[in-house]
Write a structure and sequence with these properties.
The complex is a heterotrimer of chains A (652), B (107) and C (197). Chain A is mostly helical and 652 residues long. Chain A is 66% helix and 1% strand. Chain A has a two-stranded antiparallel sheet. In chain A, helix 4 runs antiparallel to helix 5. The longest helix of chain A has 35 residues. Chain B contains 3 helices and no strands. The radius of gyration of chain B is 19 Å and the shape is flat. Chain B has 107 residues and is mostly helical. Chain C has one domain: Cytochrome c oxidase, subunit III, four-helix bundle (Four Helix Bundle (Hemerythrin (Met), subunit A)). The chains are: A mainly alpha (652), B mainly alpha (107), C mainly alpha (197). Chains A and C meet through helix 6, helix 7, helix 8 and strand 2 of A and helix 1 and helix 5 of C.
Chain lengths: 652, 107, 197
């Protein structure tokens, strides 16, 4: 009746059970608060059923923030284990638990934190920056978010029932095959990744159409803000790379459920094919992570250098080149698997090439700063930290593109340090930069600068303490995913420094939380009444903070790059705008419903509860048909309502 | 007749000719295979050629590929898809061939 | 907020956005099939000592189902020709024929699979068979989905007539149907014909 789900699957190990219990307590607290403050209707009608890109973006942020917390806890537990598990001592974690930790850490950080914050930023900013009122397919946008949330929920479920995968975040067979991983772990990985991957793919299609077809009058491609260019190119990568993941994870699922032999060790299967295909997706994926961050930096550096972006055209070509090359380098993730010198040389060369357009971008940002009037706000500080950390990571990436070097450091802590440098330095710092920059737009008040600066310093120095030792460790021969080592290796002091660095990073996170709290308390003093607190250059700053539901009462028309900057400094007489009824999509609960049903589908397939799986699929189709037969999917905001909202602008 | 943006969609005659063409190409491929008319390499190439020809007819006539007014987004997206497909398929075949050669058991 | 039944001012853009978005979705489907084709190409000789394409494929049957699917593409095309001229009867009739032909194709593939399974040549027997069943099976699933949506959209056309939203959906469906046949052309050539050479 319940497949292979038994009472035994519920966690009973103390450490594991305490995680599940804390999550349950948190959920109960949320339910209690919602009931006490009578906010259930508000939650449903204003948020869960929303098809507004701005609301959906904030929901992505909340989910990603929760998952960031979880990912950091995973990291802390691993660091603690590596500090304690030396020589005679074996630390406090069992090996299977440690394996689940490093797998969950990677999966969480890449799929649910990084992809989540990127979806959030693209969701919030792209329609505003192109002068549109919403995305091309608002319902699809809601559905994409709920599929993402559903994938997250499956990972959280694995903390309470059953185990997560212990195979590493890319799940290589034969280890991930049924023979060596007979439990539910890999299946949890597969379904959380597949379901949220489907959401990402739909987002890719949605925003690609939005950017290409819904730009405001006058905004040609070469007048778009750089963040929109970065998003466009990222979405192209999403649309072409994610189907590869769907197919490959799908084949692994078939191997595990119906006994196919794609990647098995016998019957003609070829595990190396999995490695090949998963990285054909995996490499574009890491560029999907970094390119939006590049877009964010291109937005803030001109604003805080008070000078227009240096070399817009070369920036566009550089980002297009990076995206194109992203499809031609994937073998560098498995130089050591044995394809031979010719193949390795080709992919090594292509990998080196990719550093050229990246370098162009970094130099262009620096040239933008040159002879500018720099304002050292928190976003600008995040950018400066990025330049240092990402450049370190990028340079050792080029080092590893030389196959013989890679043979020495493949799967060592040197590699770990490399990708954490580029992901934390590039993606995470980029997100923090964008978050602090656009926060006033989203919430109507600025963040406290002082606490922001403390956070930046802690993150920066914490990062250096946490990861520079890892470069050294890697060169000394320390491999990744290690949960115990001999004292004779001499690695302990370096692991100790790394653990210290982790604590400094935690202090940084603490300062960020404090910053949010203090800023919220002081919001009256820091309120943004103009909509343009930073003297911005792009269209989103022409709206109120926060923008109204329909974004723009009158669709703007641009004649230049940095359209809003041009508007601010033009001498044309600004007439009173003529308002009209605004056509908007209606909220719907079907995205939420399908999300919930897909969670049950994933859970059911994982635990072999076939009747539930079938029911869920039927339910998903039922919701889809309900949506297809729904005639009332659109509504109007009347002229009177628009006038009322616009009149409120700037007043507290 | 317009069903897509600025696209001159087909008419009955074009569709009929495309259909007849598809049937002929399908039968031709079948015929040369069953009667093993060429050596293997040539045969495979001929089959591939006939397949590409038929796919091209279907794409252009029924899916209106390349017949939009500018900007030709559909065509551009299709072009990128083909590029990624070629890279993925031939890249994988190249890589897997080398891996198998170097690493598979000799038995 | 007032409520209006129809939103004529934005239908034009919505339609074009929908077609473009659906086209991009079809391209992602193309990549999905490309990945499965790549796997098939790598694994086609991995028969583990068992039978390969030469022994298993019934080419005359494959020819028949290919011709039938090709015809269904043509009838689908005829249906799309009737959409812009608002000929509801013709639209329904030709989609119905398309449905029947598609159903034949689907059932024939199922029968083919059935014979293989009965003889013990399941997907569990070798990597080649795994790749074969997955590739052809995924395509068959697409056809099944197409059949389901033909029924759903024909119901909508019957009840609401040929209005912009139903025309849009039928056109997307036809794009899906043509695309499915294009994928099948490659399957016919690469899996079946090249499988016996």
């Amino acid at each position: 009746m319940f497949g292979r789900l038994t009472l035994n699957a519920f966690k009973h190990d103390l450490i594991e059970a305490s995680v599940g219990v804390s999550i349950l307590l948190a959920l109960i607290a949320i339910v209690f608060l919602l009931t006490y403050y009578k906010r259930w209707r508000w939650l449903w009608y204003d948020w869960l059923t929303s098809v507004d890109h701005k609301k959906i973006a904030q929901m992505y942020l909340i989910v990603s923030a929760a998952m960031l917390f979880k990912g950091v806890v995973d990291a802390g537990m691993m660091r603690a284990q590596q500090l304690l598990s030396v020589g005679e001592s074996f630390g406090y974690l069992s090996t299977p638990h440690y394996q689940q930790l490093f797998t969950a850490h990677g999966t969480t950080m890449i799929f649910f934190v990084a992809m989540g914050v990127i979806s959030a930023m693209i969701n919030y900013l792209v329609p505003l920056q192109i002068g549109a009122r919403d995305v091309a397919f608002p319902f699809l946008n809601s559905l994409s978010f709920w599929l993402f949330a559903s994938g997250n929920a499956l990972l959280i479920a694995s903390l309470m029932v059953g185990n997560f995968s212990g195979t590493g975040w890319v799940s290589y067979p034969p280890l991930s095959n049924l023979e060596y991983s007979p439990g539910v772990g890999v299946d949890y990985w597969i379904w959380s990744v597949q379901i949220s991957g489907a959401g990402t793919l739909l987002t890719g299609i949605n925003f690609l159409v939005t950017i290409l077809k819904m730009r405001c009058p006058g905004m040609t491609l070469m007048r778009m803000p750089m963040f929109v260019w970065a998003s466009l190119v990222t979405l192209v990568l999403v649309v072409f790379a994610f189907p590869i993941l769907t197919a490959t994870a799908g084949m692994l699922t078939l191997d595990r459920t119906i006994g196919t032999h794609f990647f098995t060790s016998g019957f003609g299967g070829n595990p190396m094919m999995y490695v090949n295909l998963i990285w054909a997706w995996g490499h574009p994926e890491v560029y999907i992570l970094i390119l939006p961050a590049f877009g964010i930096y291109s937005e803030i550096v001109p604003v805080f250098s008070q000078k227009k972006l240096f070399g817009y055209v070369s920036m566009v070509w550089a980002i297009v080149a990076i995206a194109f090359l992203a499809f031609l380098v994937w073998l560098h993730h498995f130089f050591t698997m044995g394809a031979g010198p010719n193949v390795n040389a080709f992919f090594g060369f292509m990998t080196m090439l990719i550093s050229v357009p990246t370098g162009v971008k970094i130099f262009n940002w620096l040239f933008t700063m040159f002879r500018g009037r720099i304002v050292f706000t928190t976003p600008m500080l995040w950018f400066l930290c990025f330049v240092v950390v990402f450049t370190i990571g990028g340079m050792d990436g080029v080092l590893m593109s030389v196959a013989p070097v890679d043979f020495q450091v493949h799967n060592s802590l040197f590699l770990i340090a490399h990708f954490h440098s580029v992901i934390i330095g590039g993606v995470l710092f980029g997100f923090f930069c964008g978050f602090t920059y656009w926060f006033p737009k989203i919430y109507g008040f600025k963040l406290n600068e002082k606490w922001g600066e403390y956070a930046v310093f802690c993150w920066f120095f914490g990062f250096l303490f946490a990861f520079i030792p890892l470069y050294v460790l890697g060169l000394m021969g320390a491999t990744r995913r290690l949960d115990h080592y001999d004292a004779s290796t001499g690695w302990f002091p370096l692991f100790a420094i790394a653990a210290f660095g982790f604590l400094v990073i935690c202090a940084g996170i603490g300062f960020q939380v404090l910053q949010l709290y203090i800023s919220f308390k002081e919001r009256a003093q820091n309120r943004d009444t103009t909509g343009d607190p930073w003297n911005g250059r792009t269209l989103e700053w022409s709206t109120a903070s926060p923008p109204p539901l329909y974004n723009f009462a009158v669709i703007p028309e641009v004649h230049d790059r940095d359209g809003f900057w041009a508007m601010k400094h033009s001498k044309t007489h600004k007439e009173k705008p003529k308002y009209e009824d605004i056509h908007m999509p209606k909220n719907t609960g079907q995205g939420f419903n399908i999300g919930v049903l897909s969670f049950f589908f994933g859970f059911a397939v994982i635990w072999y509860i076939w009747w539930l799986a079938l029911l869920s699929i039927i339910g998903i189709f039922a919701c889809l048909f309900y949506r297809l037969f729904d005639r009332h999917t659109e509504t109007y905001v009347s002229v009177e309502e628009v006038e009322r909202i616009e009149a409120q602008r700037g007043k507290v | 007749m317009e069903t897509q943006q600025g696209v001159e969609t087909g008419n009955f005659k074009a569709y009929l000719l495309a259909f007849i063409g598809s049937i002929i190409l399908t039968l031709a491929a079948y015929f040369i295979t069953v009667n093993h008319l060429f050596t293997t390499w040539l045969l495979n190439s001929a089959i591939a050629l006939l397949a590409f020809a038929q796919a091209w007819i279907q794409l252009v006539i029924f899916l209106n590929l390349g017949r939009e007014t500018k900007p030709r987004w559909n065509f551009l997206v299709f072009f990128f898809t083909i590029m990624v497909t070629v890279i993925l398929v031939f890249g994988s075949l190249w890589i897997m061939y080398h891996l198998n050669y170097n690493l598979m058991a000799t038995s | 907020m007032t409520q209006h039944e129809d939103f004529p001012d934005t239908h034009h853009e919505m339609t074009h956005n929908t077609f473009f978005g659906f086209w991009i979705y079809l391209m992602t489907d193309f990549i999905l099939f490309a990945t499965l084709f790549a796997s098939y190409a790598v694994l086609r000789d991995a028969t583990f000592g068992g039978p390969g394409g030469k022994e298993l494929f019934n080419l005359p049957a494959v020819l028949l189902e290919t011709l039938i699917l090709s015809t269904s593409g043509f009838t689908c095309g005829l249906a799309t020709l009737a959409i812009p001229v608002d000929n509801k009867k013709k639209v329904i009739a030709w989609y119905a024929v398309t449905f029947l032909l598609g159903l034949w194709f689907f059932l024939q593939v199922c029968t083919e699979f059935g014979h293989l399974i009965q003889d013990g040549n399941t997907w569990q027997k070798s990597a080649f068979l795994s790749a074969y069943f997955t590739l052809v099976g995924t395509h068959a699933l697409h056809i099944l989905l197409g059949l389901v949506f033909i029924v759903v959209f024909l119901i909508q056309v019957t009840r609401r007539g040929l209005i912009p939203v139903t025309k849009r959906r039928l056109t997307c469906l036809s794009m899906f149907w043509f695309f499915s046949y294009v994928v099948w052309i490659f399957m016919y050539a690469i899996v079946y014909l090249m499988g016996v050479t």
